[in-house]
Structure prediction request, 166 residues.
Amino acid sequence: MNSTINSGCNCGCPQIVCIRGPQGPQGPAGEVPDDVFASFSAIHSQYTPGSLISMYPDITDPTGHIVSTDPQHISLEPGYYLVSYKVSVLMKNAGYIQVTPSYNGSARLDTGIYDATTADGSSLGGSAFMIIKVTSPTVFTLTYSGSSSVNDGHVNITFLKLNRPL
Prediction:
């Protein structure tokens, strides 16, 4: 280990004596790749029980890893993704909302949103964050399964492809 008495030490520490250990391994030379991300949203939408939620491109992914194939389906290429989404609605009558994401061929209740009210004319909503592993190309959807149809539904969803190999 090297130790220096504040002369020649440029690590920025406020100590009089700076102790440095051996240098660790270095990563491969080259540039860090650009982040891959996309976002989708929709406002003032109507949701009916059992229907897919429409989401329209906001920020698009030029690499083709995250692509909207139609308003209800988002295609993801293999990789790890950080996904965050928020849904809010205005209900005319008392009831509940449930929003369930699906990917890799199955619905995921564990990362869904549920909210309920006993008052007419209430707003309901929720948000979720998750990291998903996509081992082969998949389609991502959000399904609304509330107690009744709702007006004025709002959705925002963001995908960030993580720089971690499968």
In short: The two ends are 37 Å apart (CA to CA). The longest strand covers residues 79-91. Confidence is low (pLDDT under 50) at residues 1-6. The CA atoms of residues 47 and 141 lie 14 Å apart.
